[in-house]
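Thread amino acids onto this structure.
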């Protein structure tokens, strides 16, 4: 109430001549001040229109002014103009209250309850990680004790056993690290029962974990060899070296000869390549957060990450060579490197070959290009024949005008029933910036905005050629298996959910038509969807305006419930946003359009304190 009084005081101050009357210009000035405080530049431009709306409501006799008490009354009764949707249904609130009664009270029970919930929620990850750790432990122990019983152990000691044990885990992980990025295989496995006990959604996280363990293994292996094993071998006595003489052609090597041997050179080159790949894969380099002076600035960004990552292809070639020339192993079947990595490497090579072949077949035409607020580019492309996908999935795009080698993933925002493909691209990296430049500079004028569900004609002369690879599986694609959906998106992260909402609406419309024709009622499994979209910039709502307006107009059964939240506006009850809330309520009651989002879906402000 105190904040509301503060707002009323500010309105009173707007009465410059203190006669208890406020003119249209004074209301416009108040709206502009409130819009500036909430960083709503577009609303400032429409302040005159909204001031006229208030005057129309409170001054029906066209006196040219309103009484101060009238504006205060409208401010106090703003909620009567708009019945905001509740964040939870009464059923959900009741269930939440029931759950609170079964939560444990004492500390030990709370800990046990938390552990039990964690196991239930993460059992898929748990058994995969335990199996992985167990496999590494078994391999390390096996190789460690194998070398502990060899003659070389008497010369090089535990350093040798540790280096060989670490090498065995590196072989395993160099094989495993390829599996999470075999996207076609994972997409296929998602449609099998394997999805019930393997967490395919964590494939990239597992890929990163394996990479970290490889780094540890390489440090142990290379470090023990260079710092411990080689010096011990070089400084061994003739009696100590005698059992190993035949392995080194009866001549004790020098430290330089060991380092410059095939095993040494390949090992050092692999370490250098891995250091480059690991460094450029870090978040600061990949997202171009690190600001380096020219010309070093070109080694940061997604492009550098992409090329450095493919440098690891040479690491596998060197690993084959490194594993084939070993000082202490002579028999071919004891050189096990090829046994570990052959099958995963062939699978990954087949996947990349499939991408090359399929991309030529899935060459698309750009039907429409839109540059949207918030530095977002929307591409509408032709749908290749035989290209079938599910909402929530993503594709890889290649633009040969930028690079014939780079592929970048983007979630599809079109629905499977649409006759086109659509993606929304946030321009945050070097490749996406180049994509915007290529499209905006290749066409003299971009086509006008088409209505939702329609595709504008586009002149193909000079338009860059795009290639599509996919579709690939994603966590959201299984939405059809659930009765009630809770979709939460932040900023551009809402893209897969837009496809799902459109698909739900299309399916509901098709089902209604089938019911009218056949008279048979066939209900969809998904009966309700709650979509929560939180964004910082008001212009972001322009990205999916067509979809949201379509849902608001045609979802007569209330199957889809949408909640838009704008974080740049001061929260509910703050004096700096109270006037805007009044204008928002009044405008939505009059026109059905929200002033913050520009759509028919009402926009709210999150209250983080609660």
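Threaded sequence (610 positions):
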């Amino acid at each position: 109430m105190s904040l509301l009084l503060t707002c009323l005081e500010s309105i009173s101050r707007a009465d410059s001549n203190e006669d208890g009357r406020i003119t249209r210009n004074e209301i416009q000035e108040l709206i502009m001040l409130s819009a500036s405080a909430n960083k709503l530049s577009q609303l400032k431009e429409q302040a005159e229109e909204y001031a006229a709306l208030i005057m129309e409501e409170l001054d029906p006799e066209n006196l040219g002014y309103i009484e101060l008490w009238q504006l205060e009354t409208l401010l106090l009764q703003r909620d009567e103009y708009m019945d905001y949707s509740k964040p939870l249904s009464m059923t959900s609130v009741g269930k939440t209250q029931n759950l609170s009664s079964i939560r444990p009270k004492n500390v030990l029970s709370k800990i046990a309850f938390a552990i039990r919930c964690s196991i239930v929620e993460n059992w898929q990850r748990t058994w995969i990680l335990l199996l992985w750790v167990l496999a590494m432990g078994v391999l390390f122990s096996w190789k460690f004790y194998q070398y502990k019983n060899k003659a070389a152990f008497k010369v090089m000691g535990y350093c040798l056993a540790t280096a060989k044990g670490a090498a065995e885990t590196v072989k395993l992980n160099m094989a495993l690290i390829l599996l999470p990025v075999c996207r076609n295989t994972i997409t296929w496995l998602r449609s099998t029962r394997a999805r019930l006990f393997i967490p395919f959604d964590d494939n990239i996280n597992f890929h990163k974990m394996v990479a970290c363990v490889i780094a540890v293994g390489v440090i142990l292996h290379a470090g023990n060899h260079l710092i411990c094993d080689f010096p011990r071998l070089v400084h061994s006595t003739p009696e100590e070296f005698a059992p190993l003489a035949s392995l080194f052609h009866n001549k004790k090597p020098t430290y330089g000869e060991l380092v410059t041997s095939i095993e040494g050179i390949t090992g050092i080159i692999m370490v250098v390549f891995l250091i480059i790949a690991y460094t450029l894969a870090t978040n600061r380099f990949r997202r171009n957060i690190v600001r380096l002076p020219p010309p070093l600035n070109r080694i940061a960004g997604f492009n550098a990450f992409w090329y450095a990552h493919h440098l690891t292809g040479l690491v596998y070639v060197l690993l084959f060579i490194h594993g084939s020339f070993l000082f202490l192993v002579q028999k071919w079947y004891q050189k096990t490197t090829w046994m570990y990595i052959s099958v995963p490497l062939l699978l990954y090579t087949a996947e990349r070959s499939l991408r090359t072949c399929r991309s030529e077949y899935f060459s698309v035409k750009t039907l429409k290009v839109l540059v949207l607020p918030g530095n977002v580019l929307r591409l509408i492309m032709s749908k290749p024949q035989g290209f079938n996908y599910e909402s929530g999935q993503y594709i890889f795009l290649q633009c040969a005008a930028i690079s014939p080698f780079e592929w970048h993933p983007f979630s599809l925002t079109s629905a499977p029933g649409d006759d086109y493909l659509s993606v929304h691209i946030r321009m945050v990296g070097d490749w996406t910036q180049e994509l915007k430049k290529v499209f905006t500079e290749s066409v003299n004028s971009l086509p006008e905005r088409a209505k939702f569900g329609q595709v504008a004609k586009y002149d193909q002369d000079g338009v860059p050629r795009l290639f599509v690879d996919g579709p690939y599986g994603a966590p959201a694609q299984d939405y059809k298996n659930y009765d009630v959906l809770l979709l939460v998106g932040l900023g551009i992260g809402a893209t897969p959910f837009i496809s799902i909402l459109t698909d739900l609406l299309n399916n509901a419309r098709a089902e209604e038509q089938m019911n009218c024709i056949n008279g048979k009622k066939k209900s969809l499994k998904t009966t309700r969807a709650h979509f929560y979209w939180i964004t910082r910039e008001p212009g972001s709502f322009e990205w999916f305006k067509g979809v949201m307006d379509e849902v608001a107009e045609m979802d007569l059964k209330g199957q889809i419930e949408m909640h838009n939240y704008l974080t740049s506006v001061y929260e509910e009850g703050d004096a700096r946003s109270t006037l805007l809330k009044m204008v928002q309520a009044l405008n939505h009651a009059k026109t059905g359009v929200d002033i913050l989002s520009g759509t028919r879906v009402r926009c709210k402000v999150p209250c983080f304190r609660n």
